[in-house]
Amino acid sequence: PGCLLLQFLSYLSACDRLLKQGYEEGQVEEAMEMFQYSEKKAAEFLHLLAQFNDMGFQQHEIKEVLLLCGNQREKALEELVMK
After folding, report:
1. H or E stretch covering 58
2. Can you tell me where the transmembrane regions are (predicted)?
3. Less Cβ around it within 10 Å: N or C end of the chain?
């Protein structure tokens, strides 16, 4: 049980850090789940999601492409442009 508590506290800390970077709570939770609670991968995903969103791409398409491309910016951008 102690191990689960530590994992949960680690998750909350990671979410808190991402929220302080200005990401929405729902997006932070979704990203953390998608990347098995890896703060680094979730942060990359959220950063690219915001970047591509600002370029005018649809959020659902961005999410799909980022997952398929493993957060590789150039590859994801190529896929988005081709859609």
Report:
1. none
2. none
3. N
